[in-house]
Amino acid sequence: MLRKITHGFSYLLVGAVLLSSQNVLAWGQNGHRIVGKIAENHITDATKAELKELLEGQSLAQIATWADEMRSDPSPFWQKKSSRWHYINAPSNSTTFTHNHDENLNKDNVSNILEGMYFAIDTLKNKNSSVDAKRFSLRFLVHLVGDSHQPFHAGRAEDRGGNRVNVTFFGQPTNLHSLWDTKLIENENLSFTEFAKFIDTNNAEIIAEYLASSPEQWVTESHNLADKLYKLNNDEIGFSYIYENTPIIKTRLQQAGIRLAGLLNTLFDSSAKPLAKALKMSANTNK
């Protein structure tokens, strides 16, 4: 169930397909950093200690954009295979996403965002994984949890998740995917730290609702949102569209940050229990 977040207050409350490496940048840099920052507010001290070696002095917000930044790397993985990690296609005549565990799954044969998230999770859980493998998986996982909450990363194949749907944003030509990646977030004129602070929450009811979910549900939520947004799309984007849809973006970013923290605590803190007990309440928020 989706519950809106209005400007400044929180209330109760997966992508693009066949994309080139240049245009599958879910949420843009600020969006991913917002997700990472919210997660930082809710990971436990035990999780922070376990992550220290893998982060190499960086924060979750800093590594959140790594999987996009690496697309400039000329190696075959980044140029030919990594883009598949960032999105998923809905099965024909279905909106149900499932993941079947494949023991032969490796980073080169990951085919969608669900497989990417579960590959990263399995690598981080495996005591025999190397530090480098865990570092790679952590960086990708932080990014993909964000991607899974961007509606057009569970969009339509024929328009490449909204990349081929042209719109005008206050007179400037753009496309539907870019509008949701970046422009609606930047329109708030906030830094990622300000944005994260304004939408973060300690509301136990909201947190319990968010954490009672799985990666399959995250991408299903995004797919259902994308389906509605396609139907409501207007060529000319203005104030009314911003008013109606910015709360949705805030909700998705909030959900992604909370769920990322819960996932990391479950992976790295043996005392953290799934769902509502997997989060540390941030002292910076009281909503």
From TrEMBL:
Keywords assigned: Disulfide bond, Endonuclease, Glycoprotein, Hydrolase, Metal-binding, Nuclease
InterPro entries per record: PLipase_C/P1_nuclease_dom_sf (IPR008947), S1/P1nuclease (IPR003154)
Segments crossing the lipid bilayer: none
Presence of keyword Nuclease: yes
Protein name: S1/P1 nuclease
Signal peptide, first to last residue: none
Alphabetical list of Pfam families matching this protein: S1-P1_nuclease (PF02265)
